[in-house]
Design goal:
CATH class of chain A: Alpha Beta
Distance between the termini of chain A: 12 Å
CATH superfamily of chain A: Ribokinase
CATH topology of chain A: UDP-N-acetylmuramoyl-L-alanine:D-glutamate ligase
Largest interface: B-C, 32 and 33 residues
Shape of chain A: globular
Order of helices and strands of chain A: HEHEHEHEHEHHEEEHHHHE
Oligomer: homotrimer
Number of helices of chain A: 11
CATH architecture of chain A: 3-Layer(aba) Sandwich
Strand content of chain A: 5-15%
Radius of gyration of chain A: 17 Å
Structural class of chain A: alpha/beta
Helix content of chain A: 40-55%
Chain lengths: 272, 272, 272
């Protein structure tokens, strides 16, 4: 690994320390499938989660949060409105907004809602799989629900395109995660296939990125931080567990027990 | 076990292979209590789950799904409307619709919603406990919430009645599961009492039936497939775990690790 | 421990027996983050959970329940209305209503909703952390989301104030839990710091109090029962598990395996 990559591992290790010291409050407007894992993952990494999705309180909740995560996994008219309200307030306050366009490409509602949020809000990070991000840059993806298809090779291309169009750091997650902003590409090779065998690990990745975004304004590094930590935790859990129930439990154990030294030793991050 | 029963075990083992090969997308409009387990169980058995419940997208989502599961566990006016929309679209497209009438008999809203869905939709499978299914055929049940009462002996009777009235395969789950359609009764003896000590195993059963319904149009066999796999997984988990937390984890491990040979060896299915 | 404290341990042990014998149905209108844990915890302690939150059914569901739990963790206009409907019906029927004012103090919507429920309903128990309960008695708390701040020493003061103002038993949970009503203060010293590292343990505490309230009308004792059982289960789980994923599983195992003798041996309850 090149010197500049070692520098990135060190930076991410330092960020993990910062999350645990600052305990950023991560306000999440998210789906009801993986919400519990998103809350527990933020706690495990050292942040504090709060879920609030009513129009009568999200503006105020954003005011006390360090970052806002918008996840369209089970979107509806009511929550689309509140995502926009919360996102605008976060923009006014200069707080990072992280978007997970779950299932973009699968239905027009999801694609259009994600595009609307991209248009109306200044986003810090967008994280999705190759199908979802492709749908947002007008590529004909092959989204089937929230499931990524075999377009890994194009990850960097679509990430760069959406990053240029939106000004956000764009993370396309897959076997190798690719994070693009307007001046660099970061790749994260940590992870394990079992992460695709349980529901919500994409949402958890985004929630962790929210926590890291709460402590640094280099959002590509924040995205790399979340993805490295989740990836290492996945590797460690998969070393012990093969059943998906135990793996899910072990993933949370690994996140909660993750040490700075583990990141220094095990991060596989590469900058281009 | 008679020859025709062995034939059924073989058929179910083969179905499990089909689920893992085809990876059917199971669109679920379900409750927020057990939704995470329903998603993880479908993944564990080899399918792909997607949850979407907004009127603006369910019609489109049904279009890419292999099966639709409707679960009234935490129904409300908004989701009742979208269940009907999604169900009608699935009927137009000839895709199987599986209903879980959670808590029918406990409140008029649940009983009437389940009856309305039975009347308005052509259902592939209805799965409930004896109290719930009894409520749908006008029997005075003793439903207490989502809890079955001591009417096991009448399971076949009410299953047959609802099957005749609706044209669906009707699965009444209990110590022995009974599945009726208009020309046979299938009984599944797999399972373990610990399955009643954690929430959502009924919902999980229905979700698994959804996955199996996505790969075969003999819906009684699909129902048997889901119930045999859940039952064996429950037996295997209970052999190792007695606490309800560990049992829940072990159940998911057993589902994700379930092999075709396990079904051949351990299925207790009987056809009358 | 003084004789009267031993008397309380005995009373709580006896209550645990009563819960398991009576299997009270606990109707919960609660948040979608911790709802699954709340259902499984009520099952583990020996009760039966039912979640229902639509205006068209909550009045009827309260009619068959033994206790009603209102939790504002992800409140919205629709569920605020149904909490009020359900609570009024429970009051008419003389059934206990237990309130968890999650995040009171964090936003005006939460504070005002909790105050409205306190004003409109006769509550059996209110359980919150020091920040939440302080917000309800007009103290300037330092609530940050659902997170308690360093006001432990004032727990008894605010508990007594809210108890006097509302007529409810008020439980302020923390390192030592304090329960106040108009003629005594009960302290529960069971528990473990890991309980604060996973989401929803406050909600679970309230759900367990709901189960105990379903079998006795001394609501301070019911609150102590729920908190002692959760505290002992937390201690036992923490003795075996340090990762937050395993701890959460172990907590449910400990609740489901908790014996009357364990309560007699390990309860740390003190009456002033």
């Amino acid at each position: 690994m090149a010197a500049k990559d070692k520098h990135h591992s060190t930076a991410i290790a330092s960020l993990l320390n910062d999350v645990r010291a600052a305990r950023p409050l991560v306000h999440q407007i998210t789906n009801y499938v993986s919400v519990n894992d998103c809350a527990n993952a933020v706690l495990a990494i050292g942040g504090a989660p709060v879920m609030a999705d009513d129009a009568d309180e999200v503006v105020e909740m954003v005011g006390i949060a360090s970052a806002l995560v918008l996840n369209i996994g089970t979107l509806n008219r009511r929550t689309i409105e509140t995502m926009l309200l919360a996102g605008r307030r976060a923009n006014e306050l200069g707080k990072p907004v992280v978007l997970d366009p779950v299932g973009a490409g699968a239905t027009a509602l999801r694609t259009e809602t994600a595009k609307m949020l991209l248009r109306e809000l200044k986003l810090a990070v967008v994280r999705g799989n190759i199908s979802e991000i492709s749908a947002l840059v007008g590529e004909a993806g092959t989204t089937r629900g929230v499931d990524a298809s075999g377009l890994e090779g194009d990850a960097a291309k679509v990430a760069v395109r959406l990053a240029k169009a939106s000004g956000a750091s764009v993370a396309v997650t897959g076997a190798v995660d690719v994070i693009a902003d307007d001046n660099r590409i970061v790749k994260v090779a940590n992870g394990h296939p079992l992460l695709t065998r349980i529901t919500g690990t994409g949402c958890v990745a985004t929630a962790l990125i929210g926590a890291f975004s709460g402590v640094i304004d280099d959002y590509s590094l924040a995205a790399a931080g979340g993805l490295v930590c989740l990836g290492i935790a996945g590797e460690r859990a998969a070393a012990v567990h093969s059943g998906t129930g135990s793996f899910r439990v072990g993933l949370m154990d690994s996140l909660s027990g993750l040490q700075v030294q583990d990141v220094l030793d095990e991060a596989r991050v590469h900058v281009e």
